[in-house]
Amino acid sequence: MNDLRVRAATEADLTVLVRLRDDAARWMVARGITGQWSPGELDEDHFRRVMAHGEVWLAEVGGRVAGAWELWWEDEAAWGSQPPVAGYVHRLMVDRGVAAPGTGRLLLSAAERRVAAVGRACVRLDCLADNAQLNAYYQHAGYRVVGHKKGKPQPSGPSKSFTLLEKELPTAA
User: Fold this and answer.
1) pTM score
2) Considering only CA atoms, which of 68, 5, 76 is closest in space to residue 42?
3) Tens digits of pLDDT across the chain (173 residues)
């Protein structure tokens, strides 16, 4: 996967971000992973708002979008008020029709590099508490469980419970 190219998403990418999110949601539902994402749940305005206060990144292979993620600089809804020591990864999405196995891990690594580049010491994320497979995925990627958040508000639908995970980044020598 040497030709994976990562770039910041722009306004022109909003339609593809919604499609990618909806495709990922359909993939989960088809595999019995319910309660996490639903197709049609987020629209272009969601990604536009994230771009205004954080970052949205796209990964491309051969000119085709292979995945994306959101990077926030605070996440009070899950983590409460925190000093500015972390970046928060949200909505890690992979297009399974384009991306090779292992792309999700490459996207996480790219997010970690971005967080380190702005001088923050760790990456944090939250994962639906009931999704054991995804919790294990993040733990295998070097994230450790540091807590739980019950009743986190969602963009649409009822509040949910999440596992809070964190990965310390290596310090520059």
Assistant:
1) 0.92
2) 68
3) 458 999 999 999 999 999 999 999 999 889 888 778 889 999 999 999 999 999 999 999 998 999 999 999 999 989 999 999 999 999 999 998 898 899 999 999 999 999 999 999 999 999 989 888 899 999 999 999 999 998 777 766 777 889 999 999 987 54
